């Protein structure tokens, strides 16, 4: 095993796949000469050259569409959005084209493309730069949505995303690129659509994904001291959703808390809540609690932002609530 | 346009110096973490604003720009203390601490933001002009954006609509050479951004954006055209930013020598040279202005430092006009 940074995991996954398959290219703002706005493509221009590591002007609609179009003549593009906030400028190409070309053509054209970049908040960046659109993309048939929370998962899942023959949204975080973690020396690929039990426990299930899961770890440590044992499930993939992993855990603990960095209306937690009550109603000993960001655009001011975001304290409170403590 | 007089030069010197020092102060307090998030500074581009303000009718004309937006509202009349307080995230800030460094707004002074999505404000600027035309106002909107933003589809759709509907707007591309680490020449097959107007038959021209006189003259013509029903103009202001894109920019994409080359035509020193050579003021007079500017900037910092953070309820209060909007609970 080796210890590498999250950004290196992203870079290794892309580079290994590009060595394997000539039809893959990386395209986006500042990905080549600048080595990536967050240095996730460091060294790739040097290795693969300007034909395959392509800097674009600020034109999210145009380059998203060009990348989607190129899948129709045999390419397997990786498109980097500097953040997914900016994907909104090009979202028409993702929702109306990437997600539907296969279906509309009756299966003639596949669309093997990865859109990747950071999602969610990253400090005091204000309303337009702190948004989490996982549930928007996950709402769209035709897309797959992956949101890793650590270095190992990121590398294995990004390789799977690149190899996948369908369009994949792969969401990272500015606040994770510096995280360190262990990865095997050799290549490995992780399956899409399979959740991971990050901690085993008996009293309550906490489901989360992406960088916010760290707040669940902190809460679980805290609760452990009080003798409460939390099982933490990392979804890793949001669409398709590994609901069986959640159901199995809930059948064991009988209590569920969901932690998701997203606005509360109609998000991933809402879907999980529906499925669990539909399929495991009799196993629940308490109503499910979900913890999200506030039902407002992200505020800039530090104290407001802290209130807006979910934190480990909120998780502790939620766990105690479902345990009637 | 008002004549450019001795007083104009003194004002330009004082204003541009204040803007420069205001931004320098923000860079300093950013390191102390009093201001956080992104911080995009205007250093080097001051002549564009100085010249534009001279040509505008500040009793009615309007301005909108991107996230490099701290000093434009000050130029239009907003109290700089409140701009600094916004960057500190304080309740006394222009948006009560909700907006932050990229989102300064002032309805009172007709500064329409402060926008973070590159190119997103271009249609808004034309829309403000649309509203003015609709209401038979003869106000003109200056719609500012960077060279990077000129590559967005929003510009092209907006240019076409603004011409089709003959809107009273001046499109202002502040070409400072770079969009983050990407030089203009790496974003298109030619470097003359102003020519983007040609396909829409929009009057367009390049302008020396380091010289406030040249800027004022170009803006005067464009603003008069818009005010008298002649429709949009597209100006490309050739300028330069001295600092990095935001605070975490190692600037490997350019040389120190290039930055020094532009500092030789610095707008503040150009104006200062004229003042001294034409004897509009003495070195001693200017020293007094320098000291006064320094003092005013310190007052902004003190005000921002001492102001309280906004109350948590403000987070909800500002989202909807409806007073009792039923927000969902997000935590217990
Ligand atoms: C739609 C969108 N894409 C990307 C970004 C990230 N970004 C912020 S500023 C910037 C460069 C813009 O350059 P330019 O328009 O020349 O303005 P300048 O910073 O030079 O004033 C980029 C790529 C963004 N904010 N919005
Ligand atoms: Mg620029």
TrEMBL record, chain A:
Question: Which key words tag this protein in UniProt?
Answer: Oxidoreductase, Pyruvate, Thiamine pyrophosphate
Query: EC?
Result: 1.2.4.1
Q: In what residue span(s) does the Transketolase-like pyrimidine-binding domain sit? A: 4-179
Q: Which Pfam families match?
A: Transket_pyr, Transketolase_C
**Top-rank taxon:** Bacteria
The yes or no answer to whether the keyword NAD is present is no
Positions in coiled-coil regions: none
Q: Which cofactor does it need?
A: thiamine diphosphate
The record, for InterPro entries, names: THDP-binding (IPR029061), Transketo_C/PFOR_II (IPR009014), Transketolase-like_Pyr-bd (IPR005475), Transketolase_C (IPR033248)
Gene3D superfamilies recorded for this chain? 3.40.50.920, 3.40.50.970
In its UniProt record, a GO molecular function of this protein is:
pyruvate dehydrogenase (acetyl-transferring) activity
Q: Write the protein's name.
A: Pyruvate dehydrogenase E1 component beta subunit
Q: Which organism is it from?
A: Formosa algae
From TrEMBL, chain B:
UniProt xrefs under Pfam families: E1_dh (PF00676)
Any one of the GO BP annotations: pyruvate decarboxylation to acetyl-CoA
Instruction: Identify which cofactors the protein needs according to its UniProt entry.
Output: thiamine diphosphate
Its recorded reaction(s) are:
N(6)-[(R)-lipoyl]-L-lysyl-[protein] + pyruvate + H(+) = N(6)-[(R)-S(8)-acetyldihydrolipoyl]-L-lysyl-[protein] + CO2
What's the Enzyme Commission number for this chain? Answer: 1.2.4.1
Q: Which residues form the Dehydrogenase E1 component domain?
A: 15-311
GO MF entries: pyruvate dehydrogenase (acetyl-transferring) activity
| SUPFAM superfamilies found in the cross-reference section | Thiamin diphosphate-binding fold (THDP-binding) (SSF52518)
Q: Does the keyword Oxidoreductase apply?
A: yes
The domain of life is Bacteria
Keywords from UniProt, A to Z, are:
Oxidoreductase, Pyruvate, Thiamine pyrophosphate
Q: Which CDD domains match?
A: TPP_E1_PDC_ADC_BCADC
Tell me, in a sentence or two, what this protein's role is. Answer: The pyruvate dehydrogenase complex catalyzes the overall conversion of pyruvate to acetyl-CoA and CO(2).
Q: Which NCBIfam families match?
A: PDH_E1_alph_y
Q: How does it assemble?
A: Heterodimer of an alpha and a beta chain.
Name under which the protein is recorded: Pyruvate dehydrogenase E1 component subunit alpha
Record organism: Formosa algae
Q: Taxonomy-wise, where does this protein's organism fall, top ranks first?
A: Bacteria, Pseudomonadati, Bacteroidota, Flavobacteriia, Flavobacteriales
Gene, per the UniProt record: pdhA
């Amino acid at each position: 095993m080796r210890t590498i940074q999250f950004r290196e995991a992203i870079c290794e996954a892309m580079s290994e796949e590009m060595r394997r398959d000539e039809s893959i290219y990386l395209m986006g703002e500042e990905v080549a000469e600048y080595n990536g706005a967050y240095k996730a493509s460091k060294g790739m221009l040097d290795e693969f050259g300007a034909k395959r590591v392509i800097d674009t002007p600020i034109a999210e609609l145009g380059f998203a569409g060009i990348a989607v179009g190129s899948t129709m003549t045999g390419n397997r593009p990786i498109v980097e959005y500097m953040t997914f906030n900016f994907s909104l400028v090009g979202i028409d190409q993702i929702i109306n084209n990437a997600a539907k070309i296969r279906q509309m053509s009756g299966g003639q054209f596949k669309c093997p493309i990865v859109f990747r970049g950071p999602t969610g908040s990253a400090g005091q960046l204000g309303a337009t730069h702190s948004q989490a659109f996982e549930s928007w993309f996950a709402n769209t048939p035709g897309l797959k949505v992956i949101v890793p929370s650590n270095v190992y998962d990121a590398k294995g899942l990004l390789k799977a995303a690149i190899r996948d023959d369908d369009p994949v949204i792969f969401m990272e975080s500015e606040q994770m690129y510096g995280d360190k973690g262990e990865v095997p020396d050799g290549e490995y690929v992780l399956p899409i659509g399979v959740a991971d039990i990050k901690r085993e426990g008996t009293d309550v299930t906490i489901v989360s994904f992406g960088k916010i899961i760290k707040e669940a770890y902190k809460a679980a440590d805290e609760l452990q001291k009080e003798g409460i044992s939390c099982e933490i499930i990392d979804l890793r993939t949001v669409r398709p959703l590994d609901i069986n992993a959640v159901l199995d855990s809930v059948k064991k603990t009988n209590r569920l808390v969901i932690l998701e960095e997203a606005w509360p209306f109609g998000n991933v937690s809402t879907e999980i809540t529906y499925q669990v009550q539909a399929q495991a109603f009799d196993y629940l000993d308490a109503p499910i609690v979900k913890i999200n960001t506030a039902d407002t655009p992200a505020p800039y001011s530090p104290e407001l932002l802290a209130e807006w975001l979910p934190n480990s304290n909120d998780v502790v409170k939620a766990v105690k609530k479902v345990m009637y403590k | 346009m008002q004549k450019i007089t001795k007083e104009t030069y003194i004002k330009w010197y004082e204003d541009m110096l204040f803007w420069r020092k205001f931004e320098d102060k923000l860079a300093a307090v950013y390191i102390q973490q009093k201001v956080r998030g992104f911080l995009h500074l205007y250093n080097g581009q001051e002549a564009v604003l100085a010249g534009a303000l001279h040509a505008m009718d500040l009793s009615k004309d309007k301005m909108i720009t991107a996230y490099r937006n701290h000093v434009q509202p000050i130029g239009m009349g907003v109290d700089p203390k409140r701009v600094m307080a916004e960057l500190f995230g304080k309740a006394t800030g222009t948006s009560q601490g909700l907006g932050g460094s990229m989102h300064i707004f002032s309805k009172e002074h007709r500064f329409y933001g402060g926008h973070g999505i590159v190119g997103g404000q271009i249609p808004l600027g034309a829309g403000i002009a649309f509203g003015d035309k609709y209401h038979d106002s003869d106000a003109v909107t200056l719609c500012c954006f960077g060279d990077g933003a000129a590559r967005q589809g929003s510009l092209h759709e907006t240019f076409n609509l603004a011409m089709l509907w003959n809107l009273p707007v001046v499109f202002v591309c502040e070409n400072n050479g770079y969009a983050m680490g990407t030089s203009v020449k790496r974003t298109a097959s030619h470097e003359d951004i102003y020519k983007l107007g040609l396909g829409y038959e929009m009057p367009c021209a390049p302008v020396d954006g380091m010289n406030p006189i040249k800027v004022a003259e170009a803006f005067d013509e464009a603003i008069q055209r818009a005010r008298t029903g002649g429709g949009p103009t597209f100006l490309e202001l050739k300028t330069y930013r001295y600092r990095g894109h935001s605070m975490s920019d190692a600037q490997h994409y350019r040389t120190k020598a290039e930055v020094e080359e532009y500092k030789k035509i610095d707008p503040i020193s150009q104006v200062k040279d004229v003042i001294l050579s034409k004897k509009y003021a003495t070195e001693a007079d200017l020293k007094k202005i320098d000291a006064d500017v320094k003092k005013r900037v310190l007052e902004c910092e003190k005000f921002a430092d001492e102001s309280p953070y906004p109350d948590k309820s403000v987070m909800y209060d500002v989202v909807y006009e409806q007073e009792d909007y039923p927000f969902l609970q997000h935590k217990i």
